[in-house]
Write a structure and sequence with these properties.
single chain; 254 residues; alpha+beta; eight-stranded antiparallel barrel
Length: 254
């Protein structure tokens, strides 16, 4: 499966990180989809003509590590589960292949717009420094102290449309870890995300998903990790989503 994906990726025209800056889309609309890993190769193949593939240090699958922060009572997780329109994620994300790490604040507003602020840091660390907190305070007023919550590790394939302001990301080899170093691996699930200035139904990927009866799905890797690995997290609102995901992933049993 992996070999086939890598072979298809080599058929894309490449784009570099510096070239991709023109489609950074830090203020954007995100639309997510859940795919079976077994279906992913043919979807990827159908996108070759219209998209570039991001290439970093000769690789077209980028390795990411992300540490999320939340309050003791999981405020950010619970706001998401209650469907609050204005919500936030605070995380440290390491782009392993390019040796870059950023502290990121990701805000989603009531108009379904995503705005991201970030600053480069030296590496992932378990506690937020004064400089980190000062940076967060510039865009989001914290009401409670934060602590490290869930770590996730995955590989990402990034495609950039050749003509439109659109990026596609496909996250594979999902591995979640809690602070007790317990893991849950979902390596047969793909989380796809379409990032655009505004939703475009004419997008090749949107049309392909519709043809394959794959509907947009609200899903957060952070919330998924919390639900799978933090015992005292409230899960009533996510149980149905976990059941839907378990139909796509044989490794998720709920």
């Amino acid at each position: 499966m992996l070999d086939k994906e890598l072979k298809i990726l080599q058929g894309f025209d490449p784009i570099s990180l510096s070239q991709m800056d023109e489609v950074a889309l830090l203020d954007r609309q995100d639309t997510k989809y859940l795919l079976k890993r077994n279906d992913f190769a043919r979807i990827l193949e159908a996108l070759q003509e219209e998209y570039y593939a991001l290439e970093v240090v000769g690789k077209r699958r980028s390795h990411y590590r992300t540490l999320y922060f939340d309050s003791q009572d999981l405020l950010f997780y619970n706001l998401h589960q209650r469907g609050k329109k204005n919500r936030v994620k605070i995380r440290m994300r390491q782009y392993v292949d390019s040796s870059l790490t950023f502290l990121e604040i990701k805000l989603k507003n009531n108009k379904n717009r995503t705005v991201k602020f970030r600053k480069e840091i030296e590496g992932i660390h378990d506690t937020l420094s004064k400089d980190d907190l000062d940076f967060i305070d510039e865009s989001y007023r914290l009401e409670e102290p934060l602590k490290a919550s869930i770590m996730n590790d995955f590989h990402r394939i990034t495609l950039v449309h050749k003509k439109k302001q659109e990026r596609l990301t496909f996250d594979v080899d999902l591995d979640f870890e809690n602070r007790k170093e317990e893991h849950r691996v979902l390596d047969d699930l793909v989380i796809a995300e379409m990032k655009q200035e505004r939703f475009d139904r004419e997008s090749r990927f949107a049309q392909l998903a519709k043809q394959l009866h794959i509907r947009p799905e609200r899903v957060s890797k952070y919330c998924l990790g919390v639900a799978l690995l933090i015992d005292d997290a409230k899960k009533n609102r996510i149980k149905e989503k976990l059941r839907r995901i378990s139909k796509l992933s044989e490794t998720l049993v709920v």
